[in-house]
Request: fold
Amino acid sequence: MGTLFYDSCGDPIHIDDRTLAHLKVVIATRMRRHESFTLSWRHPEEEPGGRATIWLHPSIPLRFVFDQPDPPALNARWIEDLMNSVSSTGGISLVDEAVEPPV
Reply:
């Protein structure tokens, strides 16, 4: 389970390593462009129900912490889906990983 630390205060956001690795690519790409956007997710099963949204801005400290020492192989289709969601009015929504069917 990875952790996203946003701003200098507040609770850490727990996201599994694989999802966090893909999210990092999307967020870093947008931040390099000096773009601001929202990130929304459903609370994990072990937390009270609901969902949360944060406003991501390049001037606010952000840190990604992974439990696994090696990065996972990235799924280009999933990154594309996440990139498309960040361009929407709702910002990034943590969508399930798109799995390509075998050929």
Summary: The chain has two helices and six strands. The helical segments are 17-32, 76-86. The chain has a mean pLDDT of 86.
